[in-house]
Amino acid sequence: MNLSIEPLEWTPARLEEVRAAFDGHKSQTSEGLVGPTEYVERGVFNRMSVDGKPVGFYVLFSWKHAKGTEVEISHVHASCPGIDIVKAFLPLVEQQCKGADSLRIITRRRGLIKKLQAQGYGVESVTMRKRGKHDSAA
After folding, report:
1. Do residues 43 and 57 make contact, with C-beta atoms less than 8 angstroms apart?
2. pLDDT truncated to tens, each residue of the chain (138 aa)?
3. If DSSP codes are grouped into helix, strand and coil, which group holds residue 113?
4. What is the DSSP letter of 37?
């Protein structure tokens, strides 16, 4: 089995692919506050393939901070039955990001958190969000 990843230029078709994959998706971490393509073009679209056949994509965002560079792996979407995406593709993505000082993935999926912890990732924060009235004293 030949696994590959390829960074590609943004096109209207790729934006539509991201929108279709994540619009209203239950794992969307902003709970609908941010649309799936609202800021995605700031990142790098990457195609995942198995034996030359496209099976998914992800987007990489990079930030330079005072103490190093951080890359976020975001908008991951794939369908390849019988293949564990984390075990198969994460080493390739990590190799692609080898110049970064840290990698991060934002998720609410407990199973993915367990898989990532097994690969050396740690939980560093929890996002709390309050909807509606914001005056706790009321």
Report:
1. no
2. 999 999 999 999 999 999 888 876 655 566 666 777 888 899 999 999 999 999 999 999 999 999 999 999 999 999 999 999 999 999 999 999 999 999 999 888 889 999 999 999 999 988 887 877 776 665
3. helix
4. T
Note whether 100 and 70 are within 8 A (CB).
yes
- CA atoms of 78 and 15, how far apart (whole Å): 15
> From CA 8, how far away is CA 79, in angstroms rounded?
19
Q: Per-domain residue ranges for the chain?
A: 3-118
And the tokens for 99? 């110049």
* CATH class belonging to 3-118: alpha beta
Distance of CA 88 to the CA centre of its chain: 15
